[in-house]
Amino acid sequence: MSKKILVLCMAALMAVMAMVAGCGNDKKAADGEKVLKVGTNADFAPFEFQGADPTAYEGFDMDLIRAIGQEMGYKVEINNLAFDGLIPSLEAGNIDVIISGMTINEERKQKVLFSDSYYKSGLSIMLPKDNDSIKSFADLKGKKIAVQIGTTSATEAKKIEGAQVKELNSSADTFIELAAKGVDAVINDRPVNDRYIVESKNDKVKVLPDLLTAEDYGIAINKKDTELQSKINAALKKLKDNGEYDKIYAKWFGGKK
Ligand code: ARG
Predict the structure, then answer these.
(1) Angle at the Cα of 158 from the Cα atoms of 130 and 108, rounded to 5 degrees
(2) 68 by DSSP, 3-state: which?
(3) CA-CA distance, 102 to 233, in Å (whole number)?
(4) What is the number of the ligand 1 atom nearest to the C-alpha of 41?
(5) Are residues 89 and 112 both part of a single domain?
(6) Atom of ligand 1 minimally distant from the CA of 155
(7) 146: domain range?
(8) Residue 23: inside a domain
(9) What does pTM read for this prediction?
(10) Confidence of residue 177 (pLDDT cuts 50, 70, 90)
């Protein structure tokens, strides 16, 4: 008799524990709102960076993902990670999505799902103003080049014949390396190079006009999460249709797309 009661009590306890665990898995915030865990590498202005208040992440990607979260009824939580750690974190389930100026490409598609493209970008070269010998990508043969580790710039730089490629942790580090004359040039996403020229007040560097590649940025989602991919694409489309996307675009890049 008492053994039976004990078994029943155990069963009841296990049911309660399962319910508690279930709540955790559903990513509900204390107030019942669903949370979207976003991974980014916040050293990539104007897409993601830490401004005056380092906890309030700023930039085009940050505004866009907050608008997408709002559209989907999710509270957005930003996690600032190393760029080359973003896809592993997504695969491990530590974050739900990545928005980090991340280029959609075949290699990454093996590991993650991508949303529709939300920005058209490309790679450009930054170099000292007084360097007249490097006029295009072809002139980078045998040169020392700084890139951010894990990026499309790193992949492209390694294809250049005889180039010595320095892979650094952030794009800010590549600019520092160039200023310190540790390299001849930096390869980086064009809007980020352009922004540095304007914001840094470093008048000793220039950006070449040619683009090495045409790249599309996408939001990366866990391979298993096709439902989240559809929700994000629907929210993105809505923001493009209702003019909200254009407003965010104009705030960071000026003018209409
Ligand atoms: N678009 C490039 C890539 O996907 C660079 C992105 C770097 N993003 C960043 N937040 N640091 O590889």
Answers:
(1) 125
(2) helix
(3) 16
(4) 10
(5) yes
(6) 12
(7) 122-216
(8) no
(9) 0.87
(10) very high
